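lol ok so funny story. i was supposed to be doing the assay writeup but got distracted and ended up predicting the structure for this chain instead. priorities right. anyway since i did it might as well share w the group, maybe its usefull for someone
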Amino acid sequence: MKHRLTLLFTLCFLLLLPSAAQERADSDSIIKDLQSQLHEHQLREIMMREQLSRTDANNRRDSLQLARRKASIDSLRSITAGAPLVIDGDTLLKLYARKGGMTPDLRIESAEKIINERGKSLTFFSDSCYVFEGEYFSDIMIGEDVILSISLEDALWENTTRQELANKYCKIIEAKVKELHADYGLQQKILGILFIVLILAGQWFAYRLTKWLYMRWRLRLTRLLLKKAKPISIKDYEFLNMHQIGVASLVTFRIIFIFIIILQLLVSIPLLFSAFPETKDFAYTIYGYIVDPIKDIFDAIVGFLPNLIKIIIIVVCFHYLVKGIKYFTNEIAAGKLKINGFYADWAHPTFVIVRVLCYSFMFVMIWPLLPSSNSEVFQGVSVFIGIIVSLGSSSIIGNVMAGMVMTYMRPFRIGDFIKYGDTEGFVIEKTVLVTRIRTRKNDVITIPNSNLLTSQTSNYTVAAHDYGIIVHTKVTIGYDMNWQFIRQLLIEAAEATHGIVHNPKPFVVITALDDFYVEYEINAYTHKAETLSIVYSELRQNILDKFHTSGVEIMSPHIYAHRNDLELQIPKDQQHTE
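and the output, tada:
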Protein backbone atom coordinates (compact mmCIF):
# COMPACT_ATOMS: atom_id res chain seq x y z
CA MET A 1 0.00 0.00 0.00
CA LYS A 2 2.85 2.39 0.81
CA HIS A 3 4.49 1.68 -2.56
CA ARG A 4 1.26 2.58 -4.40
CA LEU A 5 0.88 5.97 -2.65
CA THR A 6 4.46 6.82 -3.39
CA LEU A 7 4.06 6.10 -7.08
CA LEU A 8 0.82 8.14 -7.32
CA PHE A 9 2.37 11.07 -5.55
CA THR A 10 5.37 11.00 -7.87
CA LEU A 11 3.16 10.80 -10.98
CA CYS A 12 1.06 13.83 -9.95
CA PHE A 13 4.14 15.84 -9.16
CA LEU A 14 5.58 15.18 -12.60
CA LEU A 15 2.37 16.14 -14.35
CA LEU A 16 2.25 19.53 -12.60
CA LEU A 17 5.82 20.53 -13.42
CA PRO A 18 6.29 22.88 -16.40
CA SER A 19 8.45 21.31 -18.95
CA ALA A 20 9.68 21.93 -22.36
CA ALA A 21 8.92 19.73 -25.25
CA GLN A 22 12.10 17.81 -24.70
CA GLU A 23 11.36 17.55 -21.14
CA ARG A 24 7.82 16.49 -22.03
CA ALA A 25 9.16 13.70 -24.16
CA ASP A 26 11.49 12.64 -21.39
CA SER A 27 8.69 12.84 -18.92
CA ASP A 28 6.55 10.61 -21.06
CA SER A 29 9.21 7.96 -21.07
CA ILE A 30 9.63 8.33 -17.35
CA ILE A 31 5.90 8.08 -16.88
CA LYS A 32 5.88 4.91 -18.90
CA ASP A 33 8.68 3.53 -16.82
CA LEU A 34 6.89 4.44 -13.63
CA GLN A 35 3.69 2.92 -14.88
CA SER A 36 5.48 -0.32 -15.72
CA GLN A 37 7.08 -0.36 -12.24
CA LEU A 38 3.69 0.28 -10.72
CA HIS A 39 2.26 -2.70 -12.56
CA GLU A 40 5.15 -4.85 -11.42
CA HIS A 41 4.60 -3.82 -7.77
CA GLN A 42 0.91 -4.53 -8.09
CA LEU A 43 1.71 -7.99 -9.53
CA ARG A 44 4.17 -8.66 -6.71
CA GLU A 45 1.61 -7.53 -4.15
CA ILE A 46 -0.95 -9.89 -5.62
CA MET A 47 1.57 -12.77 -5.56
CA MET A 48 2.61 -11.93 -1.96
CA ARG A 49 -1.00 -11.95 -0.88
CA GLU A 50 -1.56 -15.35 -2.48
CA GLN A 51 1.64 -16.71 -0.86
CA LEU A 52 0.68 -15.25 2.51
CA SER A 53 -2.76 -16.79 2.29
CA ARG A 54 -1.22 -20.17 1.42
CA THR A 55 1.29 -19.87 4.32
CA ASP A 56 -1.48 -19.05 6.76
CA ALA A 57 -3.45 -22.05 5.53
CA ASN A 58 -0.39 -24.30 5.88
CA ASN A 59 0.32 -23.00 9.34
CA ARG A 60 -3.26 -23.57 10.39
CA ARG A 61 -3.16 -27.03 8.82
CA ASP A 62 0.18 -27.88 10.57
CA SER A 63 -1.20 -26.63 13.88
CA LEU A 64 -4.29 -28.75 13.52
CA GLN A 65 -2.20 -31.76 12.52
CA LEU A 66 0.14 -31.22 15.48
CA ALA A 67 -2.82 -30.91 17.82
CA ARG A 68 -4.29 -34.11 16.46
CA ARG A 69 -0.98 -35.93 16.90
CA LYS A 70 -0.67 -34.64 20.46
CA ALA A 71 -4.24 -35.72 21.26
CA SER A 72 -3.55 -39.16 19.79
CA ILE A 73 -0.39 -39.49 21.90
CA ASP A 74 -2.28 -38.39 25.03
CA SER A 75 -4.88 -41.08 24.39
CA LEU A 76 -2.14 -43.75 24.08
CA ARG A 77 -0.15 -42.55 27.08
CA SER A 78 -2.09 -44.61 29.67
CA ILE A 79 -1.90 -47.90 27.73
CA THR A 80 1.61 -47.72 26.24
CA ALA A 81 4.37 -48.96 28.53
CA GLY A 82 7.28 -47.72 26.48
CA ALA A 83 10.74 -49.22 26.05
CA PRO A 84 13.00 -48.41 29.01
CA LEU A 85 16.73 -47.83 28.63
CA VAL A 86 18.18 -49.77 31.58
CA ILE A 87 21.92 -49.72 32.27
CA ASP A 88 23.23 -51.71 35.27
CA GLY A 89 19.81 -51.72 36.87
CA ASP A 90 19.22 -47.97 36.43
CA THR A 91 16.37 -46.81 34.18
CA LEU A 92 17.66 -43.77 32.33
CA LEU A 93 14.72 -42.98 30.01
CA LYS A 94 11.84 -44.42 28.02
CA LEU A 95 11.04 -44.27 24.33
CA TYR A 96 7.53 -44.60 22.94
CA ALA A 97 7.80 -43.59 19.28
CA ARG A 98 9.25 -45.40 16.29
CA LYS A 99 11.99 -43.98 14.09
CA GLY A 100 11.15 -45.04 10.60
CA GLY A 101 11.23 -48.83 10.57
CA MET A 102 12.92 -49.08 14.01
CA THR A 103 10.70 -49.94 16.95
CA PRO A 104 11.37 -48.37 20.36
CA ASP A 105 12.91 -51.65 21.54
CA LEU A 106 15.40 -51.69 18.66
CA ARG A 107 16.31 -48.05 19.31
CA ILE A 108 16.86 -48.84 23.00
CA GLU A 109 18.91 -51.93 22.15
CA SER A 110 21.20 -49.91 19.89
CA ALA A 111 21.62 -47.15 22.46
CA GLU A 112 22.31 -49.64 25.26
CA LYS A 113 25.01 -51.36 23.20
CA ILE A 114 26.83 -48.07 22.47
CA ILE A 115 26.60 -46.83 26.06
CA ASN A 116 28.00 -50.10 27.43
CA GLU A 117 30.82 -50.17 24.88
CA ARG A 118 31.84 -46.58 25.61
CA GLY A 119 31.35 -46.78 29.37
CA LYS A 120 33.20 -50.10 29.81
CA SER A 121 36.08 -49.35 27.47
CA LEU A 122 39.55 -49.99 28.91
CA THR A 123 40.73 -46.36 28.76
CA PHE A 124 41.72 -43.81 31.36
CA PHE A 125 39.22 -41.16 30.18
CA SER A 126 35.71 -41.27 28.73
CA ASP A 127 34.34 -39.21 25.81
CA SER A 128 31.76 -36.47 26.31
CA CYS A 129 28.27 -36.51 24.86
CA TYR A 130 26.86 -33.73 22.66
CA VAL A 131 23.73 -32.97 20.62
CA PHE A 132 23.84 -32.59 16.84
CA GLU A 133 20.80 -30.68 15.53
CA GLY A 134 19.37 -31.76 12.18
CA GLU A 135 16.30 -30.70 10.20
CA TYR A 136 14.12 -33.50 11.51
CA PHE A 137 16.15 -35.13 14.35
CA SER A 138 18.36 -34.13 17.27
CA ASP A 139 21.15 -36.70 17.48
CA ILE A 140 22.77 -37.47 20.83
CA MET A 141 26.34 -38.44 19.97
CA ILE A 142 29.50 -39.62 21.69
CA GLY A 143 32.55 -39.32 19.50
CA GLU A 144 31.44 -40.46 16.04
CA ASP A 145 28.68 -42.75 17.32
CA VAL A 146 25.03 -41.74 17.39
CA ILE A 147 23.58 -43.01 20.63
CA LEU A 148 20.01 -41.85 20.13
CA SER A 149 18.07 -39.72 17.65
CA ILE A 150 15.28 -37.63 19.17
CA SER A 151 12.31 -36.87 16.88
CA LEU A 152 9.30 -34.60 17.21
CA GLU A 153 7.19 -37.60 18.24
CA ASP A 154 9.56 -38.32 21.13
CA ALA A 155 9.20 -34.73 22.29
CA LEU A 156 5.40 -34.89 22.07
CA TRP A 157 5.42 -37.99 24.31
CA GLU A 158 7.33 -36.00 26.94
CA ASN A 159 5.35 -32.75 26.44
CA THR A 160 8.43 -30.73 25.50
CA THR A 161 10.39 -29.60 22.47
CA ARG A 162 12.77 -31.78 20.55
CA GLN A 163 15.83 -29.69 21.48
CA GLU A 164 15.02 -29.60 25.19
CA LEU A 165 14.41 -33.35 25.30
CA ALA A 166 17.66 -34.07 23.45
CA ASN A 167 19.68 -31.92 25.85
CA LYS A 168 18.01 -33.56 28.84
CA TYR A 169 18.74 -37.08 27.61
CA CYS A 170 22.28 -36.08 26.65
CA LYS A 171 23.07 -35.05 30.24
CA ILE A 172 21.57 -38.25 31.65
CA ILE A 173 23.48 -40.49 29.22
CA GLU A 174 26.75 -38.64 29.73
CA ALA A 175 26.48 -39.03 33.51
CA LYS A 176 25.83 -42.75 33.13
CA VAL A 177 28.76 -43.21 30.73
CA LYS A 178 31.09 -41.53 33.22
CA GLU A 179 29.70 -43.69 36.02
CA LEU A 180 30.28 -46.87 34.00
CA HIS A 181 33.78 -45.79 33.11
CA ALA A 182 34.53 -45.13 36.77
CA ASP A 183 33.50 -48.70 37.57
CA TYR A 184 34.79 -50.55 34.51
CA GLY A 185 37.64 -48.42 33.26
CA LEU A 186 41.31 -49.32 33.14
CA GLN A 187 42.03 -47.51 36.36
CA GLN A 188 39.42 -49.55 38.21
CA LYS A 189 40.84 -52.80 36.78
CA ILE A 190 44.30 -51.96 38.10
CA LEU A 191 42.84 -51.14 41.54
CA GLY A 192 40.87 -54.41 41.47
CA ILE A 193 44.01 -56.46 40.79
CA LEU A 194 45.80 -54.75 43.67
CA PHE A 195 42.77 -55.41 45.91
CA ILE A 196 42.79 -59.14 45.00
CA VAL A 197 46.49 -59.40 45.82
CA LEU A 198 45.83 -57.73 49.17
CA ILE A 199 42.91 -60.08 49.97
CA LEU A 200 44.93 -63.19 49.07
CA ALA A 201 47.81 -62.04 51.22
CA GLY A 202 45.45 -61.31 54.11
CA GLN A 203 43.74 -64.70 53.78
CA TRP A 204 47.09 -66.52 53.69
CA PHE A 205 48.27 -64.64 56.78
CA ALA A 206 44.98 -65.34 58.62
CA TYR A 207 45.19 -69.06 57.77
CA ARG A 208 48.80 -69.33 58.92
CA LEU A 209 48.02 -67.49 62.16
CA THR A 210 44.96 -69.68 62.85
CA LYS A 211 46.90 -72.87 62.18
CA TRP A 212 49.78 -71.72 64.39
CA LEU A 213 47.41 -70.98 67.28
CA TYR A 214 45.64 -74.33 66.74
CA MET A 215 48.86 -76.38 66.70
CA ARG A 216 50.26 -74.47 69.68
CA TRP A 217 47.28 -74.52 72.03
CA ARG A 218 45.22 -77.67 71.30
CA LEU A 219 47.45 -80.03 73.30
CA ARG A 220 48.00 -77.52 76.09
CA LEU A 221 44.30 -76.89 76.52
CA THR A 222 43.57 -80.63 76.34
CA ARG A 223 46.10 -81.38 79.12
CA LEU A 224 44.69 -78.56 81.22
CA LEU A 225 41.19 -79.93 80.70
CA LEU A 226 42.21 -83.47 81.63
CA LYS A 227 43.78 -82.25 84.87
CA LYS A 228 40.53 -80.68 86.03
CA ALA A 229 37.97 -82.95 84.36
CA LYS A 230 36.38 -86.08 85.84
CA PRO A 231 34.75 -89.05 84.15
CA ILE A 232 31.13 -88.42 83.26
CA SER A 233 28.81 -91.08 84.64
CA ILE A 234 25.06 -91.61 84.48
CA LYS A 235 24.15 -93.72 87.50
CA ASP A 236 26.37 -96.80 87.17
CA TYR A 237 27.18 -96.24 83.51
CA GLU A 238 30.42 -94.40 82.71
CA PHE A 239 29.40 -92.27 79.79
CA LEU A 240 32.83 -90.75 79.13
CA ASN A 241 36.12 -91.83 80.65
CA MET A 242 39.25 -89.68 80.73
CA HIS A 243 40.59 -91.04 77.43
CA GLN A 244 37.29 -90.35 75.68
CA ILE A 245 37.18 -86.85 77.17
CA GLY A 246 40.65 -86.17 75.77
CA VAL A 247 39.68 -87.45 72.31
CA ALA A 248 36.47 -85.41 72.42
CA SER A 249 38.38 -82.25 73.32
CA LEU A 250 40.83 -82.75 70.42
CA VAL A 251 37.95 -83.32 68.01
CA THR A 252 36.23 -80.19 69.36
CA PHE A 253 39.33 -78.07 68.81
CA ARG A 254 39.62 -79.50 65.29
CA ILE A 255 36.02 -78.56 64.55
CA ILE A 256 36.62 -75.04 65.90
CA PHE A 257 39.70 -74.70 63.69
CA ILE A 258 37.77 -75.79 60.58
CA PHE A 259 34.88 -73.50 61.51
CA ILE A 260 37.20 -70.48 61.79
CA ILE A 261 38.78 -71.29 58.40
CA ILE A 262 35.32 -71.51 56.84
CA LEU A 263 34.39 -68.14 58.35
CA GLN A 264 37.55 -66.62 56.87
CA LEU A 265 36.71 -68.03 53.45
CA LEU A 266 33.16 -66.74 53.75
CA VAL A 267 34.63 -63.26 54.13
CA SER A 268 37.52 -63.46 51.67
CA ILE A 269 35.82 -65.20 48.72
CA PRO A 270 33.01 -62.63 48.34
CA LEU A 271 35.60 -59.87 48.70
CA LEU A 272 37.68 -61.43 45.90
CA PHE A 273 34.75 -61.52 43.52
CA SER A 274 33.65 -58.00 44.49
CA ALA A 275 36.93 -56.57 43.17
CA PHE A 276 35.45 -56.25 39.67
CA PRO A 277 31.92 -55.18 38.77
CA GLU A 278 31.65 -58.10 36.31
CA THR A 279 31.99 -60.64 39.16
CA LYS A 280 30.31 -58.66 41.92
CA ASP A 281 26.94 -60.27 41.29
CA PHE A 282 28.59 -63.70 41.41
CA ALA A 283 30.05 -62.80 44.81
CA TYR A 284 26.59 -61.88 46.05
CA THR A 285 25.28 -65.15 44.60
CA ILE A 286 27.88 -67.22 46.46
CA TYR A 287 27.23 -65.25 49.62
CA GLY A 288 23.52 -65.83 49.13
CA TYR A 289 24.03 -69.59 48.79
CA ILE A 290 25.53 -69.58 52.27
CA VAL A 291 23.59 -66.85 54.05
CA ASP A 292 20.14 -67.40 52.54
CA PRO A 293 19.71 -70.95 53.89
CA ILE A 294 20.85 -69.82 57.33
CA LYS A 295 18.50 -66.84 57.14
CA ASP A 296 15.64 -69.03 55.94
CA ILE A 297 16.24 -71.49 58.76
CA PHE A 298 16.36 -68.67 61.29
CA ASP A 299 13.19 -67.10 59.88
CA ALA A 300 11.49 -70.50 59.91
CA ILE A 301 12.48 -71.04 63.54
CA VAL A 302 11.27 -67.59 64.54
CA GLY A 303 8.05 -68.09 62.60
CA PHE A 304 7.58 -71.51 64.19
CA LEU A 305 7.97 -70.22 67.77
CA PRO A 306 4.21 -69.53 68.33
CA ASN A 307 3.31 -73.03 67.13
CA LEU A 308 6.20 -74.47 69.13
CA ILE A 309 4.79 -72.91 72.29
CA LYS A 310 1.40 -74.47 71.50
CA ILE A 311 3.05 -77.86 70.91
CA ILE A 312 4.91 -77.63 74.22
CA ILE A 313 1.68 -76.80 76.07
CA ILE A 314 -0.11 -79.74 74.41
CA VAL A 315 2.75 -82.16 75.19
CA VAL A 316 2.96 -81.01 78.83
CA CYS A 317 -0.81 -81.37 79.31
CA PHE A 318 -0.88 -84.88 77.85
CA HIS A 319 2.25 -85.84 79.80
CA TYR A 320 0.64 -85.04 83.12
CA LEU A 321 -2.63 -86.57 81.97
CA VAL A 322 -0.82 -89.85 81.29
CA LYS A 323 0.97 -89.61 84.64
CA GLY A 324 -2.39 -89.22 86.39
CA ILE A 325 -3.77 -92.24 84.55
CA LYS A 326 -0.65 -94.21 85.49
CA TYR A 327 -1.16 -93.38 89.16
CA PHE A 328 -4.68 -94.83 89.11
CA THR A 329 -3.36 -97.82 87.12
CA ASN A 330 -0.82 -98.62 89.83
CA GLU A 331 -3.47 -98.28 92.50
CA ILE A 332 -5.76 -100.72 90.68
CA ALA A 333 -2.89 -103.14 89.99
CA ALA A 334 -1.88 -103.08 93.68
CA GLY A 335 -5.46 -103.81 94.74
CA LYS A 336 -5.88 -100.52 96.61
CA LEU A 337 -8.52 -99.28 94.19
CA LYS A 338 -11.13 -101.79 93.16
CA ILE A 339 -13.66 -101.45 90.36
CA ASN A 340 -16.43 -104.01 90.00
CA GLY A 341 -15.89 -106.23 86.99
CA PHE A 342 -12.39 -104.85 86.37
CA TYR A 343 -9.58 -107.25 87.28
CA ALA A 344 -6.31 -106.00 88.68
CA ASP A 345 -4.28 -107.68 85.94
CA TRP A 346 -6.18 -105.63 83.38
CA ALA A 347 -4.78 -102.40 84.79
CA HIS A 348 -1.42 -102.24 82.99
CA PRO A 349 -2.65 -103.49 79.57
CA THR A 350 -5.53 -101.02 79.74
CA PHE A 351 -3.08 -98.29 80.67
CA VAL A 352 -1.00 -99.12 77.58
CA ILE A 353 -4.08 -98.86 75.36
CA VAL A 354 -5.22 -95.57 76.95
CA ARG A 355 -1.70 -94.15 76.68
CA VAL A 356 -1.55 -95.02 72.97
CA LEU A 357 -4.93 -93.36 72.43
CA CYS A 358 -3.84 -90.25 74.34
CA TYR A 359 -0.60 -89.93 72.40
CA SER A 360 -2.45 -90.54 69.13
CA PHE A 361 -4.89 -87.75 69.93
CA MET A 362 -1.97 -85.53 70.95
CA PHE A 363 -0.27 -86.25 67.62
CA VAL A 364 -3.46 -85.34 65.75
CA MET A 365 -3.53 -82.01 67.59
CA ILE A 366 0.15 -81.33 66.92
CA TRP A 367 0.13 -82.35 63.24
CA PRO A 368 -1.39 -79.09 61.83
CA LEU A 369 1.12 -77.07 63.86
CA LEU A 370 4.17 -78.73 62.29
CA PRO A 371 6.08 -76.80 59.58
CA SER A 372 4.96 -77.59 56.01
CA SER A 373 2.26 -79.94 57.29
CA ASN A 374 -0.06 -78.66 54.56
CA SER A 375 2.44 -79.10 51.74
CA GLU A 376 1.76 -81.76 49.14
CA VAL A 377 5.23 -83.26 49.62
CA PHE A 378 4.70 -83.66 53.36
CA GLN A 379 1.28 -85.21 52.84
CA GLY A 380 2.58 -87.50 50.08
CA VAL A 381 5.42 -88.79 52.26
CA SER A 382 2.96 -89.35 55.11
CA VAL A 383 0.61 -91.34 52.87
CA PHE A 384 3.53 -93.37 51.50
CA ILE A 385 4.77 -94.21 54.99
CA GLY A 386 1.22 -95.13 56.01
CA ILE A 387 0.87 -97.50 53.05
CA ILE A 388 4.24 -99.14 53.76
CA VAL A 389 3.37 -99.58 57.43
CA SER A 390 -0.06 -100.97 56.57
CA LEU A 391 1.31 -103.49 54.07
CA GLY A 392 4.23 -104.56 56.20
CA SER A 393 2.54 -104.71 59.58
CA SER A 394 -0.50 -106.90 58.94
CA SER A 395 0.94 -109.71 61.06
CA ILE A 396 2.07 -107.23 63.68
CA ILE A 397 -1.40 -105.73 63.90
CA GLY A 398 -2.83 -109.25 64.13
CA ASN A 399 -0.55 -110.09 67.05
CA VAL A 400 -1.37 -106.79 68.76
CA MET A 401 -5.11 -107.39 68.44
CA ALA A 402 -4.67 -110.97 69.64
CA GLY A 403 -2.68 -109.72 72.63
CA MET A 404 -5.43 -107.25 73.50
CA VAL A 405 -8.12 -109.92 73.17
CA MET A 406 -6.21 -112.38 75.37
CA THR A 407 -5.64 -109.67 77.93
CA TYR A 408 -9.35 -109.33 78.53
CA MET A 409 -10.09 -113.04 77.98
CA ARG A 410 -7.58 -113.84 80.76
CA PRO A 411 -6.68 -117.37 79.55
CA PHE A 412 -3.51 -117.21 81.64
CA ARG A 413 -1.40 -114.83 83.67
CA ILE A 414 2.31 -114.41 84.25
CA GLY A 415 3.54 -117.30 86.40
CA ASP A 416 0.83 -119.71 85.25
CA PHE A 417 1.82 -123.17 84.11
CA ILE A 418 0.24 -123.77 80.71
CA LYS A 419 0.35 -126.20 77.86
CA TYR A 420 0.45 -125.01 74.23
CA GLY A 421 0.46 -127.89 71.78
CA ASP A 422 3.28 -130.15 72.89
CA THR A 423 4.93 -127.36 74.89
CA GLU A 424 4.47 -127.02 78.63
CA GLY A 425 5.94 -124.28 80.72
CA PHE A 426 5.55 -121.23 82.90
CA VAL A 427 4.42 -117.89 81.45
CA ILE A 428 7.25 -115.45 82.15
CA GLU A 429 6.28 -112.51 79.90
CA LYS A 430 3.22 -111.18 78.11
CA THR A 431 3.50 -108.36 75.58
CA VAL A 432 1.17 -106.99 72.94
CA LEU A 433 3.02 -109.02 70.32
CA VAL A 434 4.29 -112.26 71.89
CA THR A 435 4.09 -114.47 74.97
CA ARG A 436 7.21 -116.15 76.38
CA ILE A 437 7.11 -119.54 78.13
CA ARG A 438 9.87 -121.16 80.17
CA THR A 439 9.78 -124.95 80.00
CA ARG A 440 10.81 -127.32 82.78
CA LYS A 441 14.21 -127.60 81.16
CA ASN A 442 14.54 -123.78 81.26
CA ASP A 443 14.06 -123.35 77.53
CA VAL A 444 12.44 -119.96 76.79
CA ILE A 445 9.97 -120.27 73.93
CA THR A 446 8.47 -117.22 72.21
CA ILE A 447 4.97 -117.69 70.82
CA PRO A 448 3.14 -115.02 68.72
CA ASN A 449 -0.12 -113.98 70.32
CA SER A 450 -2.06 -114.72 67.14
CA ASN A 451 -0.98 -118.37 67.37
CA LEU A 452 -2.02 -118.60 71.01
CA LEU A 453 -5.40 -117.06 70.24
CA THR A 454 -6.17 -119.52 67.44
CA SER A 455 -4.81 -122.63 69.21
CA GLN A 456 -5.89 -124.62 72.23
CA THR A 457 -4.07 -123.87 75.47
CA SER A 458 -4.38 -125.54 78.87
CA ASN A 459 -3.90 -123.55 82.06
CA TYR A 460 -2.82 -126.02 84.76
CA THR A 461 -2.38 -123.34 87.40
CA VAL A 462 -6.00 -122.17 87.23
CA ALA A 463 -7.29 -125.74 87.09
CA ALA A 464 -5.15 -126.78 90.06
CA HIS A 465 -6.26 -123.80 92.13
CA ASP A 466 -9.96 -124.01 91.37
CA TYR A 467 -10.61 -127.74 90.87
CA GLY A 468 -7.42 -129.66 91.28
CA ILE A 469 -5.57 -131.37 88.49
CA ILE A 470 -6.15 -135.10 88.06
CA VAL A 471 -2.86 -136.90 87.63
CA HIS A 472 -3.28 -140.33 86.08
CA THR A 473 -1.25 -143.25 84.86
CA LYS A 474 -2.06 -146.72 83.50
CA VAL A 475 -0.75 -150.18 84.36
CA THR A 476 -1.49 -153.58 82.79
CA ILE A 477 -1.94 -156.60 85.09
CA GLY A 478 -2.74 -160.21 84.21
CA TYR A 479 -6.11 -161.80 84.69
CA ASP A 480 -4.76 -163.98 87.46
CA MET A 481 -4.67 -161.03 89.89
CA ASN A 482 -7.72 -159.87 91.89
CA TRP A 483 -8.81 -156.49 90.65
CA GLN A 484 -9.78 -155.35 94.18
CA PHE A 485 -6.21 -156.08 95.31
CA ILE A 486 -4.78 -154.17 92.38
CA ARG A 487 -7.14 -151.23 93.05
CA GLN A 488 -6.00 -151.12 96.68
CA LEU A 489 -2.32 -151.11 95.70
CA LEU A 490 -2.84 -148.27 93.26
CA ILE A 491 -4.73 -146.17 95.81
CA GLU A 492 -2.02 -146.75 98.42
CA ALA A 493 0.65 -145.71 95.92
CA ALA A 494 -1.30 -142.53 95.13
CA GLU A 495 -1.83 -141.65 98.78
CA ALA A 496 1.88 -142.12 99.48
CA THR A 497 2.74 -139.59 96.78
CA HIS A 498 3.62 -136.02 97.92
CA GLY A 499 1.30 -133.42 96.43
CA ILE A 500 -1.68 -135.78 96.08
CA VAL A 501 -4.63 -134.55 98.11
CA HIS A 502 -6.74 -137.02 100.11
CA ASN A 503 -9.96 -135.18 99.45
CA PRO A 504 -11.23 -135.87 96.87
CA LYS A 505 -9.85 -139.39 97.25
CA PRO A 506 -7.88 -141.14 94.53
CA PHE A 507 -9.86 -143.58 92.44
CA VAL A 508 -9.14 -146.39 90.01
CA VAL A 509 -10.74 -146.98 86.67
CA ILE A 510 -10.48 -150.21 84.63
CA THR A 511 -10.05 -148.80 81.15
CA ALA A 512 -9.70 -151.98 79.10
CA LEU A 513 -9.97 -155.78 79.18
CA ASP A 514 -7.51 -156.88 76.56
CA ASP A 515 -6.64 -160.36 75.42
CA PHE A 516 -3.83 -160.96 77.88
CA TYR A 517 -4.16 -158.29 80.56
CA VAL A 518 -6.42 -155.85 82.37
CA GLU A 519 -5.65 -152.12 82.03
CA TYR A 520 -6.02 -150.11 85.23
CA GLU A 521 -5.82 -146.30 85.53
CA ILE A 522 -5.13 -144.53 88.81
CA ASN A 523 -6.54 -140.99 89.12
CA ALA A 524 -5.63 -138.62 91.92
CA TYR A 525 -6.05 -134.89 92.60
CA THR A 526 -3.24 -132.40 93.12
CA HIS A 527 -2.98 -128.64 93.52
CA LYS A 528 0.72 -128.54 92.68
CA ALA A 529 0.66 -127.50 89.04
CA GLU A 530 4.20 -126.15 89.16
CA THR A 531 5.56 -129.59 90.28
CA LEU A 532 3.26 -131.71 88.14
CA SER A 533 6.07 -133.68 86.52
CA ILE A 534 7.56 -134.48 89.93
CA VAL A 535 4.16 -135.66 91.17
CA TYR A 536 3.87 -137.94 88.14
CA SER A 537 7.35 -139.31 88.67
CA GLU A 538 6.82 -140.02 92.38
CA LEU A 539 3.42 -141.62 91.68
CA ARG A 540 4.98 -144.03 89.20
CA GLN A 541 7.79 -144.82 91.62
CA ASN A 542 5.28 -145.63 94.37
CA ILE A 543 3.29 -147.88 92.03
CA LEU A 544 6.42 -149.87 91.22
CA ASP A 545 7.34 -150.16 94.88
CA LYS A 546 3.85 -151.25 95.95
CA PHE A 547 3.48 -153.81 93.18
CA HIS A 548 6.97 -155.28 93.59
CA THR A 549 6.71 -155.65 97.36
CA SER A 550 3.28 -157.25 96.91
CA GLY A 551 4.59 -159.72 94.34
CA VAL A 552 2.45 -158.33 91.57
CA GLU A 553 4.08 -158.45 88.20
CA ILE A 554 3.47 -155.51 85.84
CA MET A 555 3.58 -157.44 82.63
CA SER A 556 3.03 -157.03 78.94
CA PRO A 557 1.27 -159.48 76.59
CA HIS A 558 4.58 -160.25 74.93
CA ILE A 559 6.02 -161.59 78.15
CA TYR A 560 2.85 -163.48 78.98
CA ALA A 561 2.73 -165.14 75.59
CA HIS A 562 6.23 -166.50 76.04
CA ARG A 563 6.03 -167.34 79.72
CA ASN A 564 7.24 -171.01 79.58
CA ASP A 565 8.58 -171.19 83.15
CA LEU A 566 10.10 -167.67 82.80
CA GLU A 567 10.84 -166.15 86.18
CA LEU A 568 8.74 -163.32 87.53
CA GLN A 569 9.82 -159.95 86.19
CA ILE A 570 10.20 -158.50 89.69
CA PRO A 571 13.46 -157.50 91.42
CA LYS A 572 14.38 -160.36 93.76
CA ASP A 573 14.87 -158.10 96.76
CA GLN A 574 11.28 -156.89 96.35
CA GLN A 575 9.58 -160.28 95.65
CA HIS A 576 6.79 -161.20 98.08
CA THR A 577 7.49 -164.34 100.17
CA GLU A 578 4.62 -166.15 101.76
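The two ends are 195 Å apart (CA to CA). Confidence is low (pLDDT under 50) at residues 14-21.
back to the writeup now i swear
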